[in-house]
Design brief:
about 20% helix; 6 strands; about 150 residues; alpha+beta; 4 helices
């Protein structure tokens, strides 16, 4: 275990992957019985709120509980071997304490740009002829229209 990835202060949050779709908050608490678990977050599918996404987060009250939870990586819950890992810490210290590993105010969000916008004018304009541009067609038309 890479101890540099462990949080130095609360929240002590674990990422839970490969969860059964019928998992409940109570079954997560039972899986981690004996550990000081303070919160469980199981995000639902946006298109079907009755179905879970298959991953979640568990927040622990202390670092020792998080370390014990990490030792349960690849253990079975229901019919699946679940992944237990340290959740990524949010960069924004002023954010919600229950960020559950999500960086809510990240400046590196890939969706910030309009990826459907045309490329910059200097990137592709000079490399290919445009439809209706006669300079390309004329070069080859002379070869065949020489009668």
């Amino acid at each position: 275990m890479d101890r540099s990835r462990l949080p130095k202060s609360p929240p002590y949050t674990a990422f839970l992957g490969n969860l059964p779709y019928d998992v409940t908050e109570d079954s997560i608490k039972e899986f981690f019985r004996g550990l000081n678990i303070s919160a469980v977050h199981l995000p639902p599918e946006p298109s079907n709120p009755e179905r879970l996404k298959g991953f979640g987060y568990a927040e622990f009250e202390d670092l020792d509980s998080l370390l014990s939870a990490l030792s349960l990586n690849e253990e079975s819950l229901g019919n699946r071997r679940i992944r237990v890992d340290v959740a990524d810490r949010a960069q924004d210290k002023d954010g919600d304490d229950r960020s559950f590993g999500r960086d809510r105010n990240s400046d590196s969000d890939k969706t910030d740009t309009d990826w459907r916008a045309r490329p910059a004018a200097d990137s592709f304009d000079d490399c290919l002829p445009r439809r209706g541009d006669d300079s390309f067609g004329d070069k080859y038309r002379d070869r065949y229209d020489s009668d």
